[in-house]
TrEMBL record:
Domain of life: Bacteria
Molecular function terms from GO: cytosine transmembrane transporter activity
InterPro entries: CodB (IPR030191)
Native source organism of the sequence: Pelagihabitans pacificus
Lineage of the organism: Bacteria, Pseudomonadati, Bacteroidota, Flavobacteriia, Flavobacteriales
GO CC aspect terms: plasma membrane
UniProt keyword terms in alphabetical order: Membrane, Transmembrane, Transmembrane helix
Residues passing through the membrane, by range: 108-133, 153-170, 182-202, 227-246, 267-287, 314-331, 352-372, 378-399, 420-436, 442-461
The protein's name: Purine-cytosine permease
Length: 474
């Protein structure tokens, strides 16, 4: 049988996405596919929210400009030398690879949590796009303190935006990648235009004027915490912790021809998480000078962060369109990942229907503005929850021989759950979450210690708990 026919059979069995198979060589993609996807996903609707939220935390110029430079570099290195390296070696989704290590019962719980958290994140992006779509309908914009929908117009707009995004995501990886490639240049141009217009509106004539926009920082807005240099560095590094050190993007980079495709994440980090965040912060700096924002501050309230009106104020209709498209290109791959998580729980379901399920959950989440308005806190929490599980894959991949343990132990020993994984995650999560709450430590500060401890405990527990079947090797 020829390779072409083998690939056709694999694609038919796996629903076209190879959820429980290695991606065959004929389906591998060049770095260009990932460049567009990451540039589009991370120069996105949420950047219009995250940039302003840094200002509500009172960051200084040095904290923001240099802190983001370093934090995003660490994120790129994590993707390149951990996620992409492991992805091209095994070419499996995160969920199927975890099943081999953890066992089916244990990974079902993880997949459910992973899928739901991704849906909540996509929901925040749907909310962001809705702030742009709602402008022509005179929709009341959500405030930083809003939790519930603020009116029927908001509900209808969110439902419409969520339906379109879900349908695009349900078409699979190729459609998601193509959508990102088509839209990302327009979105990047919009962020750049917003930044330039905002600089003009702020009267910036020199670099010192630009630096003085943030200066030495300020007190945080009501209900926000103060961000220092290290808050910015660590938060920006782990803003996508679930994707890189948490290994979620194994599901994406399994399609890469080479691990060097991991460098394409720099397009997302330095166009999206650097230029776009700063541009969005400039838009908010303009808004803060308005009578409306000053009225909020005089009443002891934080002025709202509504991306649609911010972009509209800078570049008009083009800004509105850019916010809508930016929400699509971020929510699409996020819903796609969530669909893969749900498919690992119900493997007989098609990719289309599990992605529609994920899109429905995301749309419902988008009805609650708190996910978008508290995005800094939510992103830190979901990264902290999911990242330590990725340490299990990383530490097994790089250290299984040195530790003398069996790779893919649950598959080889035919067990439904691996106690070593369960105890490693529970102890690392529980210990550092307690430290964060008890001593009021910024949650992102304990993400890396929790990740490292989980990996080390996994190796130790595996050494003592594994019962190596005869004839297997490390």
């Amino acid at each position: 049988m020829g390779q072409y026919n083998i690939d056709e059979e694999i694609e038919e069995l796996a629903g076209g996405e190879f959820e429980r198979e290695r991606v065959p060589p004929s389906k591998l993609k060049s770095w260009k596919s990932f460049l567009g996807m990451y540039a589009g996903e991370h120069a996105a609707g949420t950047e219009f929210t995250i940039g302003p939220l840094f200002l509500t935390a009172g960051v200084s110029a040095f904290d923001l400009i240099i802190g983001l430079l370093l934090g995003n570099l660490m994120a790129v290195l994590s993707w390149r030398f951990l996620t992409a390296e492991i992805a091209v070696k095994h070419r499996l989704t995160l969920y199927y690879q975890l099943e081999k290590i953890c066992g089916r019962k244990l990974v079902v719980g993880y997949n459910l949590a992973n899928g739901i958290l991704f849906c909540f994140l996509a929901g925040a992006m749907i909310t962001v796009s809705a702030t742009a779509v709602g402008i022509p309908f005179d929709m009341e914009m959500p405030k930083l303190t809003d939790t519930l929908p603020n009116g029927p117009t908001f509900i209808l707009v969110v439902l419409a935006v969520g339906a379109v995004i879900s349908l695009v995501a349900s078409k699979g990886y190729d459609t998601v990648s193509k959508a990102a490639n088509w839209m990302s240049p327009l979105i990047v141009l919009a962020f750049l235009a917003c930044g330039i217009v905002a600089l003009n509106q702020l009267g910036v004539k020199s670099f010192s004027d630009f630096w003085n926009i943030w200066g030495s920082g300020s007190d945080p807005f009501p209900g926000q915490i103060k961000y220092t240099f290290w808050h910015v560095v660590i938060w920006s590094w782990f803003a996508n912790a679930a994707m890189h050190i948490g290994m979620s993007d194994l599901s994406v980079f399994r399609f890469a021809k080479k691990a060097s495709s991991g460098w394409t994440t720099a397009a997302g980090m330095y166009i999206g998480h650097y230029m776009a965040w700063i541009a969005a912060a400039l838009l908010y700096a303009v808004y803060l000078k308005s009578p409306e924002a000053q009225a909020f501050l005089s009443n002891g309230e934080a002025p709202p962060v509504a991306p649609g009106p911010l972009a509209d104020n800078a570049i008009g209709l083009f800004g509105i369109i850019a916010v809508v498209l930016a929400g699509w290109t971020t929510a699409n791959p996020t819903i796609y990942r969530a669909g893969l998580a749900f498919q690992a729980i119900i493997p007989k379901a098609s990719t289309f229907w599990v992605t529609i399920l994920a899109g429905t959950v995301a749309t419902v989440a988008g009805l609650f503005p708190a996910f978008a308005m508290k995005l800094l806190d939510f992103v830190a929490l979901y990264g902290f929850i999911l990242a330590p599980v990725g340490a299990v894959i990383v530490f097994e991949h790089f250290f299984h021989e040195r530790a003398g343990i069996v790779r893919n132990y649950a598959e080889i020993a035919q067990i439904n759950y691996n106690k070593s994984v369960l105890w490693a995650w529970a102890i690392s999560f529980g210990l550092f979450y307690f430290i964060s709450i008890r001593f009021e430590v910024f949650l992102s500060f304990v993400t890396l210690p929790a990740w490292v401890l989980c990996g080390i405990l996994f190796l130790i527990f595996s050494k003592f708990l594994q019962r190596r079947p005869l004839g297997t090797s490390t």
